[in-house]
Amino acid sequence: MHWVNNYIGKPYSFTDGYNCASLVYTILTKEFNKNIPEINNKNLKKIAKLTQFIKSPEHGAIAVMKSMENHVGIWLDIDNGGILHAIENIGVIFQNKIHLRASGWLKINYYRIK
To answer: Which of 56, 67, 100, 110 has a 20 to 30 Å separation from 80 between CA atoms?
Structure first.
């Protein structure tokens, strides 16, 4: 069983589950052993200094998605590639690019931790 299955289906929550930022932080620190500060609005400048924009997604990259608001997830090279992210009223899901576009995430930028 892949470690991703431990997260899929967990509830979206600021206390008992994951919001998009806390999921990204947890995955990067626990599954990719990255030493980064907690991801929140107060630490965005610190996080920006630790990342580098990349043109194409790569395993473990932070995916910043935009529609009507900003959203983050993690690109994973599993099942032909997709993004693990937490969505309000749905919880943690894994979506490939086709499903992401169909869900309204039209612009996605990728960043690797330096």
So the answer is: 67
Eight-class DSSP state of 10: P
Phi and psi torsions of 25, nearest 5°: -60, -45
pLDDT at position 54: 96
Q: What residue spans define the domains of the chain?
A: 3-113
pTM of the model: 0.91
Q: Give 52-80 pLDDT, tens digit per residue.
A: 999 999 999 999 998 767 889 999 999 99
Residues 6+ apart with CB under 8 A from 85: 20, 23, 24, 63, 65, 71, 72, 73, 74, 92, 93, 95
Domain formed by 3-113, architecture = Alpha-Beta Complex (3.90)
